Structures are given as C-alpha cells and as structure tokens.
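Sequence only, no structure available. Ideas?
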Amino acid sequence: MSRPAEARLRAVGHPRRRTRTMLAVFAIILSLFTWQLVKVQWIQADEIAQKATNNRLTTSKVPAARGEITDSAGTVLARSVERRDVAGDPVAAKSFRERSTNGKPKGIDGVSQELARILGGDAAEIRATFERADARDSRFVYLAKDISPAQWSQIRALDLPGITSEQVQKREYPQGTALAPLLGSVNAQDVPGGGIEQMLNTTLQGKAGLHQVERARNGSEIATGENLDRKPVAGRGAKLTIDSDLQWFAQNELAAQVKSSKAVSGEIVVADKAGNILVAASYPSFDNNDMSTAKSENLQNRAFTDTFEPGSTQKMVTAGAVLEEGIMTPKSHVEVPPSLKRAGRPFHDSHPHPTEYLTLAGVIAQSSNIGTILAGEKLPKEKLYTYMKKFGLGEATGIGFPGESTGIVPKVSTWKGDTWYTIMFGQGLASSAVQQVGLFQAIANGGVREPLKLVSEVQGGDGAMQPYTDERKSTRVFSAKTSKELVGMMQGVVTKDGSAPKAAVPGYDVAGKTSTAERYDSVKGGYDGVTAGFIGMAPAKDPQLIVSVTLQRPQAGTFGGDLAAPVFSKVMAEALRQRKIPPNKSDKLPFPIKYRSEESTSK
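Reply:
I predicted one. Tokens follow.
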C-alpha cells in the first residue's frame, strides 16, 4: 500500500476502531434506556402511577349543613337546604351520541339542548359557555348554579358525558326582611356576615366532607377507581329568645312609622322582665335571601350597634338615685321656674311655661329638665356615675352580638362646664337601644338587672337541646321599694297631664318615659335633628314586658311622645295579647303630679 493510501485510511479511521467506538456509543445509549426503564418500572413506579391517578382524580368538598336557628316557639328562622351546581367538560361532551343515527343533535349541541330542556334555559347560551371553555383548553366550566336536587336527578338520569354536579348548601331565611338585621347572612363559602350567624358561627358551622372520584378521559366515572366519600358533619342548632310573630308585627309598625315620620332609621326592642329579648327590630332592613339587593348601611342591627344620646329616659336614673339615697320621695315638692341658670348658661324645658309646682313624680310625668336638675344636684356626682355603671351604661351587654357598641359614659373627672347638669337629663353620654332596655328591665324587675339574653338553647353533641351557657350575673341596682316608686311615677307620663298620653294601652296601666334628644351625627361632626323615643312597661302593677321605640332624625314631627309613643302602644298591646296577660286598668295614679296649681297660687 502506498503512503497516500495509508494516510487516507488513518483519516477515516480503522474499521475495527470505528466498530469499537460505535459499540461503546450503543452501550451507553442502551444503558441510559435500561436505567430509565428500571427507574420507571421499579424505582419511581409508585410515584408515576400516583401522578397518573391524580390526573384522573376529581376531588371536591361536600359542604356541611349549618345548624338551624329557631325562635322561642321552635319556628325556623334560618335553615340550610341542599342545592346543586352543574359543571361540564367540553371534551367529553363532544362524544355525546357519537354512534347515534336517530338524527338528534350530537356532541355539545345535543348536551346543551338536553340541559336546557330540564333547566329551562337557553341551549345557545349553554353551548356558548362550553365553547368558551373549549377555546381556552379548559375541561371544567360551570353551566348552571343553585338548581334543585330534583332537577339534578333528571339530568343525571340522562347520563350525559362530562356532566357532573357539586353539592352546595344554601341558607334560607323564611322570615325575610323582618329578621335579616338580627340573623345576618352566610355567603357561598359558608362565611357568615354579621348577626346571629356570626355570633354563633362556632356552633352553627359544621365540618365539610370529601367526595373523590376517578374519571376516564371522556369524563365518565371509573367504577373501580380510587373513589372516596367522607360524609360531612352538620352544624348544631340554636334556639333564640325571639318571638318571630311579635318581631314581624313590630318590624311592620316600625317601617310604617319611619316612613311616615321621614326618619332615617328606627329600632324596636321588646324584652320580658327576666331579660329575654323577644324583639330586636331594625329598619331599614334587607333581604338576606338575596344579598345582591342589600345596602351596606342596612346590614347591621341598629338596636345593638347604633348609639345616641338617650335624652329623658336617663332621668329615671337620676330620679331613682335620689329616691334610693333617701334624698327625696315621689311626693317631694319641686318648684320649677320658667328657666334655670347653671354653669353660666340657662336651661329650659321642651315647652315654655310659668313657674310650676310639681312633685318629683310630676317632674318625670312632664319630663322637666329643670325639675330634674333641681332634684339631681342634691346628689353627689360620683353617686350618679355609680348608678349609671350599675345599670350597665357604657359597657357592652355581654350578649356577644357582632358590632355591639359599648356606648359612652364619661368619667366624673372629665365632666366640665355644664356636663354635670346635662348628664342628669340624658345629654353628654351615649347609649344603645338595647342598653336602654336593660335599664328599664332592672326597674321592672324590682331593681335587679338581669343579663339581657338572645339565645336560650343550643344543640349538644348528642343532638339534644341544652341551655345556653351564660356566666353573667344579675346586679341589684335599686331596692324593690325604689323600683316600685319609679314605676308608679312613670304612670303619670301616659296620662293627659303627662308627656305621652298616646302611649296608653286600652285596658292596662302603663308606665313609661318619653325621650327627645339632640342627635349627634358623626359624619357631619355636629348635631343634626333629634332622636325621638319612648320606653315603657306593662302592666304597671306587675310589669311583665318592656318595649322600646326609637326613631332617628325624624323630619315630620319631633317629640318622642308624638312619634314613638303611638308605636309603643300598638306593639305593647300586641305583646300583651299574644301572651294572654289580662287587663288591669286603674283609674287612680299612685302619686300626684302637682302639689299646688298655678291658679291657686295666683289667687
């Protein structure tokens, strides 16, 4: 072989060398394939198999039903009902009737028409929903929400490919707007929005279950797949102290008067002498069955959350304190001039008058600011403050209602200028309607303030109802004698010589107190209009029920005796009727209103 030929052979490589090189490369490639095969078949077999299974698994939560909320008689106020959300897989839906020769629509068109026939919707809209999902390569899209279990049974019987459903729980409120601000609401994620739903969420909320199925590519369930069902655990129920019939009546009367007086809002609270709240009405309201129509400013129950200067109902604290301390009696004389100067400013009553010769009972009956100052200034400031705190003013009731206000009772050390005098007749402090009811409940109950209650029973783990745990204690504020005298003094309020004859209830002795106070508007940063109210109890000889009516910033009228008292009369009459409390009308007041007439004085 010549040298040029030898050079060419070295350039292309020796045949045996090439063979060895190729064999080495093949051996490496084979080793890699072998290693990959070993890894797939043995080392990562379980992991890969699980990933494949997971791709076929559909897992969804099965929502738990919330516990029922009932009123004191067992009437259902809130309940959970099963509903279904229908979903579709556009890829699987395309296989519908793929072997059909009967001329009916196939694929997505056919599925859409079958669904529309049962759901009552538009097949074109369902088809468009499918197509939008298909265009973005999505194999899951909601086709209908909130359908009944009966409708889903009809759909399931059709065995449509790729059509599935999710079980959901929908909260229903049979009483609608009458109780909405008290009960609150629950959204689609089972998150409560205020009211009893939020207050008792730990009790009412159940534990979600789990539904897991393995599906084939066409969306059908694999019967032998890794399917799993864990049943949900329902929430526990609660019974309220509320009387839903009386609540409905009160809510309607309140709504009518808010509209008639052109007020911005109103509240009615009814309680029995033991502190059980029977009514907690707030208007304007909302429909918690359709939260899309609700206005945010109407979601709260104003009886708990709104505070206002209580005005003349506070006079019962001042009068009670001077009685309890032995400073005065209901018949003590109070000479009330047309005006009174204190702390460098004049004080007046709501109506101009000459000098009046009233008893302490008459001061309450005619709601005299001047008379209250003349009586109250005999009492040390610290004593009055102590009694206000005993009544629970300036503190939350302990009910636990979401958003409940504590109110405001300024400490004595902060009283400046005329504060000492205005607090005596209810200005310069703030209170809620519920707190005011607590004040009058103590008077009705012989001077003992019982904790106000909204929940009477809850369901235990065994399903049986049991008393609601409440560790709050009762507080004695006044003696039984003082409380009886206060009730007798308030009877004069509802006579023709008092400030609220319109609060009278035919056939019954009624004791109560009007209130008309300047209304502070936090948004405007100043006073704007008035708060007009009336709180009373009946029968006066043995009070069983307390009713409070409050109207915020009425424009067609001003005084609580004109606006709130008539509503009180209707609601109290209905409450007495429902509870079958017999009439007990007396023609004589326990205490005189005046000790001398102006006419006899002038003579």
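DSSP finds 21 helices and 24 strands in the chain.
Hope that gets you unstuck.
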